[in-house]
Amino acid sequence: MKTRLSLIASACLLAAASSSFAAEVAPVMDSKSCDPPKYPKAALMNEETGTVGMGFLVGTDGKVVESKVEKSSGSKSLDKAALSALSQCKFKPGSKDGKAEQLWSKVDFVWKLE
C-alpha cells in the first residue's frame, strides 16, 4: 500500500511539473499595420546607420502596452524614431497554452542608407 501511494504522489508531482512548462507563443508584428520609421533629418545628414533592438509588451488585443530600446543603434535619434513608429503597429497577440496573453516581443530595425 505504501508503494502505491508514493507512485500516485510521484505522478501528481510529474503532472504539476509538466504544467509549469507552458507552451508560449510570442506576439508577431504586422508590419503592414503601421508606417515604417522615417529617417530623422540630422541622422540622415550625419549618415548615421545601425540596428536598434526593441522590446514591445503586447496586450491581448494586439496593441503595444509598453516599449523599450534593448540594444541601441548608437544613435539616440534613430532609436527614438524606430521605437516611436513601431509602437504604433498592431501585433498578433501572443499566447500561453493556446490562450491569448500579454507578452513581450523582440523586434530589430535596421537603419541603412541606400
UniProtKB/TrEMBL annotation:
Name of a matching Pfam family = TonB_C
The UniProt entry, under SUPFAM superfamilies, shows:
TolA/TonB C-terminal domain
Query: What keywords are annotated for this sequence in UniProt?
Result: Cell inner membrane, Cell membrane, Membrane, Protein transport, Signal, Transmembrane, Transmembrane helix, Transport
Bilayer topology: Single-pass membrane protein
Where does this polypeptide localize?
Cell inner membrane
Which stretches make up the TonB C-terminal domain?
Answer: 24-114
Q: Does the keyword DNA damage apply?
A: no
GO cellular component, alphabetical, reads:
plasma membrane
As given in the record, the signal peptide range reads: 1-22
The UniProt entry, under InterPro entries, shows: TonB-dependent_transducer (IPR051045), TonB/TolA_C (IPR006260), TonB_C (IPR037682)
Key word Transmembrane helix present in the record?
yes
GO process annotations (BP): protein transport; transmembrane transport
UniProt cross-references to PROSITE patterns, sorted A to Z:
TONB_CTD
Q: Which family does it belong to?
A: Belongs to the TonB family.
NCBIfam families xref list: tonB_Cterm
What protein name is recorded for this chain? Energy transducer TonB
